[in-house]
Design goal:
Rossmann fold, 16 helices
Amino acid sequence: MKVLTVVGARPQFIKAAPVSRALRAAGHTEFLVHTGQHYDRQMSRVFFDEMQIPEPDINLEVGSGSHAAQTAQMLGKLEQVMQTNQPDCVLIYGDTNSTLAGAMAAAKLPPSLAHVEAGLRSFNREMPEEINRVLADRCSDYLFCPTQTAVDNLAREGITGGVSLVGDTMFDAVLQFGKVAEDRSTILDQLRLTPKEFLLATVHRAYNTDNPETLRGILTAFIDLNETIVFPVHPRTRERINQLGLGLTAGAVKMIEPVGYLDMLMLERSARLILTDSGGMQKEAFFFGVPCVTLRPETEWTETVAAGWNVIAGVTPAGIARAVSETVWPDDSPAEIFGDGTAAQKIVTHLANQVGS
């Protein structure tokens, strides 16, 4: 079986790593396409190095741009790559512009299309990611869901064919690389951090970064919490902060450059609490049993909220403060609702059986 894998953004590298390893271990051929959506070293190259992801067979080097311009560039180039390589299946991940472009290109060509992390819904159409994931699901022949909630979401939309509950490949990755991070990462020493005596924060979604008042409110909340907060700053977020003159001067907030996967795992598992608008970090917090405050009005990972490990705080300083100070967190370990750590193997086996060898 020949699989063409489309990745382009930091979360996709994490999701794809276990599947890429399983594909190659089973003797299948993978042609790996990096769209270049994330091109900064700390947002791209370091993940390939740390997670031992094979070197991309081609990098489309699309770079940044508006949603329409970026997706259009990817679409044209991906179509050419697919026509040249003639894969049996195209594999897409998550909900980025790379996901949408891969889905649209494959949908009008012969190869089957498989979507990993299908069925997620935030029910907020103002989020570009929501549009991307809905359209990707509509185009896909095989929909690999991380949770039963995702399966149920698809069923409500009338999508039942080709749907499989396999678990979450990000959970696979945490299980595979958690011990590696513990052995190799020195980030706690570098930042002089004591486990469980700091908070970890990330902000990157356009919903938060492109609205000056929203971004200002989130940063104000960080300062007002008056706790040590480690804040790896996404390049786009740093640009917005600089444009608005919103640099954090409070000593308790440590604004640092983005970190690699292993360092992020160590920061996540060592934090007392995580504040984020990232879907991936909401899950990783849950995997590690670390309380999470989501800096959005909703989440696609409703299972983490239902389990009590995640609270939707919104984006106002008052809402964030309440979530941090008033939430009573569980005192037991999180349930295993994201699979058993073999999602990648299940995906590869299913595709081999359905698409052919």
